[in-house]
Amino acid sequence: MHRRALLTLGTLVAVSACSSGTGGGESDQPDKVEVFSWWDGPGESEGYSALIAYFKQQNANVQFINASVAGGAGTNARAVLASRLDANDPPDSYQIHAGLELASDVRAGKVEDLAYLYERNGWLDKFPRALLDAVTVDGKIYAVPVAIHRSNLLWYNPATLRAAGIARPPGTWAEFLADATTLKAKNLTALSIGPGWTQKHLLENVLLGELGAERYTGLWNGRTTWRSAEVTAAVETFRRVMDVSDLETYGGDWQSALDKVVAGTAAYTVMGDWADAYFGRAKGLRFTADYDVVVSPGTAGVFNFLSDTFTLPKGAPHRAAAESWLTACGSPEGQDAFSVQKRAIAARVDADKSKYNDYLTTAMAAWQDPATVVVGSLTHGVVADTERNSQLDTALAALVGGGDVAAFVASVAAMFG
Ligand code: GAL
């Protein structure tokens, strides 16, 4: 990555004091491994199955127990996991986002230092420095990233735009709102939305598009004050965008929001690039012909990143098998197998580029372009810890439920400054 991008990301994810220490399961049975994730369901399971298949091929003697709990962005899974960890019943490995979400679990003493695995496998120079920083706390490395996803994407059905006489997808949120008026005249919904986490995913990208990369990043690290006319205006834009969504009738998870774009009843949806797995893999649609994508309005040249990682929880009952799982996660073969199906980019720098086609060609080019500015996702754990993310969820639910912008801004300002 470019120096500028690295610096930006470095400031996003730098974390300070925390706890550490080793633990480990008492009984070490290498014959099974229980892995906890939220990759269950169309658009999630294809990539995960490819990674599991690679693991099984390398570890024929280990029984793989797939303890996935469905629900986009891990909202359901995280709650189940928290109660298991509280009850001292950890799985052997669990999924978590790189960045401050991981740092929350490190601080709470839930996961082990994996620096020895990095050394054993020669991984220290195989991941971008900024990504390693996002899984490092006080010099210790607590997770193995499997892939990089992009959050700031606007998906659409080209046939719907053609039918509405819209020549190209919008480059700004003002253009998006103008499109919404055109679409409304044709009885079409401008934006399809899903549950709370997809609304937050939209919020982060409206803020990014309206405020720009630097001020967006500052919202989470205290360098941009929430108490400003610009931030209020950006939140008002978010509210206007929500007003032209199908909020009142949405149901299901992120996949249902995409279904409306496929069906042509809604023109656009803002979602991360796992959407490509749903459209292209689960639904068998053709990229650019049946569905297409641009960066979300106002974010040209910016890559809003997130990274899925796996950990070794303290007290994991099958530690040796968990290490084998993490080794598969960090391997070039495991990462390519996963990412090509999940429609992500391998986290490693030595991915086999020839395997990354269609949408992923663009994603990889953007990620590797020295001019790209990298910022971190709020919803997917990079720039805010678990506690502040959940406080923000409460404030956002109030706003979306009809609360006023000033009250929302005041409550978020109290969290982030
Ligand atoms: C994100 C996760 C992605 C994808 C998405 C939808 O949080 O990082 O890999 O699964 O949620 O569930």
Secondary structure: elements and pairs:
Layout: H1 3-13, E1 32-36, H2 45-58, E2 63-66, H3 75-86, E3 93-97, H4 100-107, H5 115-121, H6 129-134, E4 136-137, E5 140-141, E6 144-150, E7 153-156, H7 158-164, H8 173-185, E8 189-191, H9 196-211, H10 213-221, H11 229-243, H12 254-263, E9 266-270, H13 274-282, E10 292-295, E11 302-310, H14 319-330, H15 332-342, E12 345-346, H16 359-368, E13 373-376, H17 386-400, H18 405-416
Parallel strand pairs: 1-2, 1-3, 8-9, 11-13
Antiparallel strand pairs: 3-11, 4-5, 6-11, 6-12, 7-9, 7-10
Beta-D-galactopyranose (GAL) is lined by residues 38-39, 44, 72-74, 97, 149, 254, 272, 274, 306, 308, 380.
